[in-house]
Structure to design on (240 residues):
């Protein structure tokens, strides 16, 4: 059975230059999205026709030629075009009343990510992923179930704790699990997590209670630290 799904892989930058270039991709992608969102908003409030994706892409090409924004050339051009396409899709969903009006992306509140729609390569045998603009491939950890038929795109993201991931979106051939004739009843409890109709008992280990206790401690330590300091920022990473 063919299904569309994504596989999340943990990737590891080779050196500090890779980290810097990754941050440039995150920043440029966010800047392009916000720049054209502001441009679209002005046209929208003035009653003008919304720019098409092709027209916006031509403006992006002109921006790269200007002295003030020539730094956009340092990142993958298709990543920037994908940012415009994402914005165009957000506007389309808004006009079809499927989503809220597009919002500006914040460096602190928004998830740092960028899409690579083409010219990537994944070596599953040696666990290496190649991304345009990067000299060496990234090592990764992760695997997938079923048979990979086609890869549509790769999205690189960064967590608040500083870890990097690659989400591989594609078409997978997943064989459905065989149906069984036997049925079993499940009863959810408090003292015991699950009790089945055949007498099997699964204990409630109360992970949430223990984690909440630890979270309270971390939040207390975070609140005691002086604002706008590296120490407070480290405790903020633990919370997230």
């Amino acid at each position: 059975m063919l299904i569309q799904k994504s596989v999340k892989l943990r990737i590891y930058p080779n050196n500090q230059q890779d980290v810097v270039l990754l941050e440039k991709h995150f920043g440029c992608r966010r800047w392009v999205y916000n720049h054209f969102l502001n441009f679209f908003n002005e046209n929208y409030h003035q009653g003008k026709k919304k720019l098409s994706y092709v027209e916006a892409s031509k403006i992006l090409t002109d921006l790269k030629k200007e002295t003030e924004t020539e730094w956009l050339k340092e990142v993958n051009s298709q990543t920037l075009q994908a940012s415009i396409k994402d914005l165009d899709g957000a506007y389309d969903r808004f006009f079809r009343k499927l989503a809220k009006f597009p919002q500006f992306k914040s460096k602190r509140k928004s998830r740092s990510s960028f899409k690579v729609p083409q010219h990537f390569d994944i070596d599953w045998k040696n666990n290496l992923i190649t991304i345009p603009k990067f000299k060496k491939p990234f090592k990764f950890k992760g695997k997938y179930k079923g048979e990979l038929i086609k890869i549509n795109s790769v999205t690189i993201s960064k967590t608040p704790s500083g870890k990097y991931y690659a989400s591989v979106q594609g078409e997978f051939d997943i064989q459905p699990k065989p149906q069984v004739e036997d049925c079993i009843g499940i009863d959810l409890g408090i003292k015991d997590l699950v009790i089945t109709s055949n007498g099997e008992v699964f204990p409630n280990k109360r992970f949430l209670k223990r984690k909440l206790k630890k979270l309270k401690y971390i939040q207390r330590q975070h609140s005691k630290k002086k604002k706008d300091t590296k120490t407070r920022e480290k405790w903020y990473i633990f919370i997230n």
